[in-house]
Amino acid sequence: MEQIELENLLKDMSLSEKIEQLVQLHGGFYGETDNYTGPVVDFHMTKEQPYRIGSILGEHGAQKLKDLQDRMMELQPHHIPALFMADVIHGYRTAFPAPIGIGSSFHPELAEKICEAVAREAAAAGVHVTFSPMVDLACDSRWGRCMESTGEDPWLNARFAESMVRGFQGDDYGKKGRVASCVKHFAAYGAVQSGRDYNVTELSERTLFEDYLVSYRAAVSAGVSMVMTAFNTINRIPCTTNKWLMRKVLREDMGFTGVLISDYGAVGESITHGSSEDLRDAAKKAMEAGCDIDMMSECYLHQLEGLVRAGELDESLVDEAVMRILALKNQLGLFENPYKDASTEDEEKVLFCEEHQELSRRAAEECIVLLKNEGVLPLTEDRKVVVVGSLADDREITGSWALFVKKEQTVTFKQAIKELYPGAHVEFILSDSLDEAGVDAVKNADRVILVLGENQSTTGESKSLADISLPREQRELFDRVYEENKNIVTVLFGGRPLAIPEVAEKSAALIEGWLPGSCGCYALADILFGRVNPSGKLSMSFPHCTGQLPISYRQFSTGRPKPPVDHYIPFVSNYMDVPNTPLYPFGYGLSYTVFEYSEVTLDKNSFSKGEKITASVVVKNAGRMDGMEAVQLYIRDMKGSVVRPLREFKGVEKIFLKKGEEREVRFDITEDMLRFYDINMDFVSEPGDFTLWIGDSSLTENGAKFRLLPQRQEQLQEV
Ligand code: NOJ
């Protein structure tokens, strides 16, 4: 449709019809039967009203959505098609590794490919919009939703945000095989206090802007078509009714012009937060704050009309929101083809197709992180191996945001080993406690693979933990096995870094498998047996204990920094019982080969705005196996008008080197990479001294110094 036609359509719509476009309901409102029961009654709706609303949440399947669309268009007075939105987070039918794993690939291009495949499947199943990517910065693994995040770093999250949006939407999400993307949760949901889900946040404006908003900004710049609000407060105002956050920061400053949707029930929750009086007040506040769609609360549905009629809400706000929704429908091409890509034939062809299974496996190869290896890995097929733990044959490791996968298609760890290594001597004890026979088997094994951690029931939304150590049963299992056999390879599944200092110390090898997706256990088996060389790097630090949280490699200088010693020192900033640093930091991950880094060289030592410095290293695969390496760049601003982080991640290049091969890796340093929110909250760089490091993790000391010069007079005049 042309813009003028959209405008004419809007003009022709009644107020109640417009308001219905601003409402989103879940699939439970569209039952098979004609009974007038359930949510429709609870929401005080007429039987037919759900068929006139603007968008539906969580429904999927080509035929079902075509039928539903027919009915929606029949009952909507102007035959406006509905939008079908769903949480297709790390896969529709084929599950890919959960985002926390994807983050650990340190490979945004891989994320783009994954999202392209996810979009292909979702589009064939009739979905128009996916509620992904979730780009919340996560530094506190008490929060169960870490699994949906790509981790603790603003820069890395921003790169993943862009690549995921591109993967879903392509250059035009109206095209076949693409879906519109909705970035969430705006904003700073990952900063919920004490890691408790749905809690409030308390963070400075500087932290909000410099750390938490970076990834949303990147998604907006990449053209994301929707944004979802967060459940939490910012500055003690619920995000969904926070006018400053949405109108000023998101729309005015970031330039977002798309559709803003509340999270589930969040408009109404401003009442329980205690900042809105009642449904009417909540509706008014959310609308004025710029929230276009009310997902699953009754506020807009029953309150907006009264507010407009009473002159308490400007109808132009409703019109503005409706126009954005119509524009999204138009961009998806729904006015011409209301089913978009929904096709049962395409579902047959693309859902869980071989190509996607293969990608799920290859992706997991890059996401799994080897954290420790005292020479026990890779395994050889002649060794006697015992695999212990119920998670070794659990399909619930697919992850909690793989809602539409068929769990029976998930390959378990046991299945993968049996299928790929039929000749290996592997026995399975699929229990978290050991009987006598189990103890014997463990005693007589050359290696014990102990599978511990979490599955869908213990990680994800609303799965916060006050103590992130392993559950008691698993700790006891570890101790029992350790009594009998010291050659333990611990494999962790789960969606967050756990506090496992003893397990890490006592295991001979340790692998974080995350939630690896439908075919990820093939990758895990191949890593264990050495067919695949691991290359994952942690995108979230592993703390020593819960008390260290939140933790990140992005520490700041204190007035009393701890000198580089291993013991406690009174009256400096340190703990009496644990180090300041994490057990395994951001960027850390081992390989079966050895990557040697040359010293960093710079093409010059100083530069000014408009110029660049090129920093390079030569990386050599000096080991005995081909492998991939995420070469990482960190920068420190040595002094600023405000306290600056001790190092910040600023670049990565993932390279593949055959054994013996070497390659020069270069990073261009430009002035814009050095900007931050200064003492006046202006986003600028400050001339002065910097250090950069290039290496294999955030611990690297392979550094060089450079200087950003003040702008020359001519440059200032140009400005
Ligand atoms: C609540 C979750 O917070 C959000 O991430 C999700 O997209 C919505 N529910 C819809 O399912």
How many strand units? 27
Assign the CATH superfamily of the largest domain. Answer: Glycoside hydrolase, family 3, N-terminal domain
Number of domains: 3
Amount of helix:
25-40%
Number of helices: 22
Describe the structure.
By secondary structure, the protein is of the alpha/beta class. The chain has 22 helices and 27 strands. The protein has an 8-stranded parallel sheet with strand order 9-6-5-4-3-2-1-10. The model has no long low-confidence stretch (mean pLDDT 97). The structure holds 1-deoxynojirimycin. 1-deoxynojirimycin binds next to loops.
What's the short version?
The chain is an alpha/beta fold.
Secondary structure: elements and pairs:
Elements: H1 3-12, H2 15-21, E1 23-26, H3 39-42, E2 55-57, H4 62-75, E3 83-86, H5 99-104, H6 108-124, E4 129-130, H7 154-169, E5 180-186, H8 205-212, H9 214-221, E6 226-229, E7 233-234, E8 237-238, H10 243-253, E9 259-261, H11 266-272, H12 279-289, E10 294-295, H13 299-309, H14 315-331, H15 344-350, H16 354-367, E11 369-373, E12 384-388, H17 413-420, E13 425-429, H18 436-443, E14 447-453, H19 472-484, E15 488-493, H20 501-506, E16 509-512, H21 520-528, E17 595-597, E18 601-602, E19 606-607, E20 612-621, E21 627-637, E22 648-657, E23 662-670, E24 676-677, E25 683-684, E26 688-695, E27 703-708, H22 713-718
Parallel strand pairs: 1-2, 1-10, 2-3, 3-4, 4-5, 5-6, 6-9, 12-13, 12-14, 14-15, 15-16, 19-27
Antiparallel strand pairs: 7-8, 11-16, 17-20, 18-20, 20-23, 21-22, 21-26, 24-25, 26-27
Helix pairs in contact: 1-14, 2-13, 2-14, 6-7, 6-16, 7-9, 10-12, 11-12, 12-13, 16-21, 17-21
1-deoxynojirimycin (NOJ) is lined by residues 57, 87, 131, 184, 263-264, 461.
